[in-house]
Amino acid sequence: MVFKKMLSAFGVGGPSVDTVLTNPNTRPGLTLDGQVNLVGGDAEAAIEQVVIGLVTRVEVEGHDTEYAGTMEFHRMVVSGPLQLAPKQQLSIPFQLPVPWETPITDVYGQRLHGMTMGLRTELAVARAVDKSDLDQVAVHPLPVHERILEAFQRLGFRFKHADLERGHIRGVQQTLPFYQEIEFFASPQYASTIREVELTFVTSQRGVEVILECDKRGGFLSAGHDAFGRYQVSHTDVDRVDWAQVVDGWLRETTSRYGSLRSQYGPSHGHGHSRGHGMGGMVAGAALGVAGGMIAGEMIEDAFEGDFGGDFGDFGGDE
């Protein structure tokens, strides 16, 4: 029996956990509903708590280095202490609110190239190894996000890549420790002035703050540089405006107002900057390292491998 107790301590023959989502598709501001199914092991187990959390992959920039780590950014306890008898089956229903700032992972039913999202379930068992389960989640755009993304497409921009950058954008009210950058190659009509555009949504219950970073081409006597623009839109604006016209106006204003925006957002990236340092002067110094739930990407990377590929529709995905 000593051997059996040792196995139990390492999780062998212990309780198991499996989370089933009613629907893995959701949107910012909505919920993820489901149930956590527990099955008792060979012996009675004292469960300390059952916790679910949203996890995603985030880019972190240090001193001349950049790496991706897996971060849990929203969690909820679905059960406190309970006793689980041998082979006992127990289902615990839950309704997890999805934060308004949760990044978009899917557009038109296609995964955005570069994005991952999962719901991790942790079962803390007294004096034993924590059990966990990971389920893929798809976060779809709200109507206002959809209209703006469609406008970029209508203006001929091609989707390149999306990722999450750790840090905060200066002057923007953020609740999560990262922000999403959706990158586009410039369309032919803008190609003379812009190489690429990075689009960031910071969403709240009231509306969306839209941040644009345009990688401007250099001229005959001037070096290339990045230009920033910030725009507020309300959820109620969705069907009131011509979004292609609005986005075109934003792009023209952003690229023409570089001088004043530069002082507003701090120093520029410098001459000839190319993508690789997030939002530069706009990003307040982010605490790096393992703080705030950031762990080395390898730990649950395997669970993401192979499940999270794909680009979406006409947005391309060229590198």
Secondary structure: elements and pairs:
Blueprint: H1 2-9, E1 16-21, E2 25-26, E3 31-39, E4 45-61, E5 66-79, E6 82-84, E7 89-97, E8 106-107, E9 110-111, E10 118-125, E11 131-136, E12 138-139, H2 143-154, E13 158-166, E14 168-169, E15 178-185, E16 194-203, E17 207-216, E18 225-234, H3 243-256, H4 258-265, E19 283-284, E20 294-296, H5 298-304
Parallel strand pairs: 2-12
Antiparallel strand pairs: 1-3, 3-7, 4-5, 4-6, 4-10, 5-20, 8-9, 10-11, 13-15, 14-19, 15-16, 16-17, 17-18
Could you characterize the architecture of this molecule?
With 319 residues, the protein is an alpha+beta fold. 15% of the residues lie in helices and 42% in strands. The strands form six sheets. Strands 4, 5, 6, 10, 11 and 20 form a six-stranded antiparallel beta sheet that branches. Strands 13-15-16-17-18 form a five-stranded antiparallel beta sheet. The chain has a three-stranded antiparallel beta sheet with strand order 1-3-7, with no helix packed on it. A hairpin with an 8-residue loop joins strand 15 and strand 16. The longest helix has 14 residues, at 243-256. It starts with a helix and ends in a 15-residue tail after the last helix. Mean pLDDT is 78; it is low at 1-10, 218-223 and 258-319.
